[in-house]
Design goal:
With 71 residues, this protein is mainly alpha-helical. It is built from 3 helices and 2 strands; from the N terminus they run H-E-H-E-H.
Length: 71
């Protein structure tokens, strides 16, 4: 359903997508990407807002710390 809705929104003139709008309204990120690829505009013409959910913060934090230690 995400692909259909986002494609319709792009055709209607929308240029922004918030993929993390909430637990019950979360878009499927890969479907948003498919809608972007199927549009006839450049990727730079759109705004896509992503959110990192709290579960992923620990993984990102560990990855950043590891990189800092390696540098």
């Amino acid at each position: 359903r995400t692909l259909e809705l986002v494609t319709r929104a792009f055709k209607a003139g929308f240029i922004g997508v918030d993929t993390g709008a909430g637990e019950s309204h979360r878009f499927n990120d890969s479907a948003v990407g498919a809608a972007l690829r199927s549009s006839f505009r450049r990727r730079e013409d759109y705004y896509v807002q992503l959110k990192v959910h709290h579960v992923a913060h620990r993984v990102l934090d560990a990855a950043c710390r590891f990189r800092l230690v390696q540098e």
